[in-house]
Amino acid sequence: ISQTYIDLYEINPNPAYIDKTLYQMEFMFHKRPKENDLRWKPTNRNYLNAWSWADSLFMAPPAYAQMTKATGDPKYLDLMDMLWRETYNYLYDPEEDLFFRDDTFFEERTKNNKKNFWSRGNGWVVGGLVKVLEAMPKDDSRRAFYEGVLQKMSKSLIKLQSPEGYWYASLLDKDVVNVKETSGTAFFAYALAWGINNGLLDEEEFAPHVFRAWDLLVSSIETDGKLGYVQPVGVGADKVKREDTEPYGPGAFLLAGTEVYRLLKQ
Does the global pTM surpass 0.90? Predict the structure, then answer.
């Protein structure tokens, strides 16, 4: 929600669009614990204030990056960079170049003894990365880190795409939920296409994966316009049915569509 109002502020700089967001961000500067506790436990009073789960990297960081762009004050981007790297250092698995949803997944293994990486959780991460990079100045020395994470994750993701074009709800183990899932797939298509369009990913290598995903997504739209096979709200890979949909599914689909359109127009 904050991201949308910051977008509006950049079009029409009415302070009312961002005053409540600024208030919340100032809270992070003055009330945030000196050391973040990223443990995902209800007994940890900070676990919902810190960016302690993968989804949060779509929710908060883009807004902080956008706020610096909108106001010219670098402190918001500086705080974002510090907190993002803390979460990266905690949840990122350098062996698989993927993010655990939260620390309860560190030791969890599927029945096939695979690490359990949630598709949509990683979709939130790469989608948020795109939005951070869009807001970050081109000459910011920190861009290379975020571009590198997107490139590494993209390399990993294309190896995990199914022949049909979707990504399994548990990325490394299709047997956890062996049916297509469109929300994670849409976020991945969005990030991969954006990476190609912005010169970070090789078109010859990555475009076939984008188009295969896009065809799968289009085929998942019902005659009434509803996007199906969107895994319901959850905290990890779970069953999904044809009739399942949630607002974030079509939202990710529209983001993917904008970048696929740009890719086709090049």
Answer: yes
